Amino acid sequence: MDRYETTYAYRGSRWIKRIVVAADGSPASTRGLKEVADLAPRVGANVVVVFVRHVPATALMAPSVAGGVVAQTLDEQEAEVRQEVLRLLGGTGVSWELVVRAGSPGEEILQVADETGADLVVVGSNRHSSLHNLILGSTAAYLAAHSQAPVLVMRSKEARAPVHGGQLETSISSRSRS
Q1: What is the pLDDT of residues 49-101, one digit of tens each?
Q2: Quick one: which H or E segment has residue 116?
Q3: Are 14 and 63 in contact (CB under 8 A)?
C-alpha cells in the first residue's frame, strides 16, 4: 500500500496568487490576518489588507454631536490595524499593502478584491444575532454572496462553537468565475 503525505510547506500555488484580507481590529479579523500571514509565504501569494473606515448609521443622525468622537475613534482603530498588520506581515517576506477605504465594509472590500484580481478573500465574522444581521447585514454574508473569488470566513477562537455533531462553523464560499 502506498503511503501519501500531505504537506503545505511547498512554495507556490497554482491558483492563490493574491489574497485580500479584511482587517478591523476584531478578534476574528486578527485570526484571519494570522492565518494569511502563515499561508501567503507558503503559497507565494501577495497580500492586500483592507481597512474600511465605516461610520455607523447612528452617528449620522447627530453628526455635530458624534462627528469628532467618531473620527477620532476611526483614526485610533486604523492606527491599531496598521500596527497589527506590520507586526503580523512585516517579517514574513511576502509582498503586502494596506488599502484604506471609507464606506460600506462589504462593498469596499469587494471593490478592492475586484480591482486587485483577488484569488481569495479572507474576512472575520463576529457572531451577531440573526436580528443584527437582518437589520444591519453581515459583511461576511455579503462577500460570500457577491465575490467572484472564494471567501474564507474566520471566527475568533473564542467565538468558535461546535455545531452539527461537533464540526466547527468556519465556512468557505466559492462562486464560479464566469
Answers
A1: 999 998 765 555 555 555 677 788 889 999 999 999 999 999 899 999 999 99
A2: helix 105-116
A3: no
The two beta strands, 172-173 and 151-154, are antiparallel
Residues 13-39: tens digit of each pLDDT = 688 999 999 999 999 999 999 999 999
Q: Which amino acid is at 169?
A: E
Cβ atoms < 10 Å from Cβ of 72: 10
Fold category of 18-73+85-173 in CATH: Rossmann fold (3.40.50)
CA separation for the pair 106, 50 (Å, rounded) = 11
Rg value, the chain, Cα: 17
Q: How many CA atoms does the CB half-sphere of 79 hold within 13 Å? A: 6
Please, what is the end-to-end C-alpha distance for the chain in angstroms? Answer: 41
Closest CA to 33 of 16, 52, 47: 47
Task: Indicate the helix (H) or strand (E) that contains 22.
Answer: strand 18-22
CA triple 174-23-133, angle to 5 deg: 65
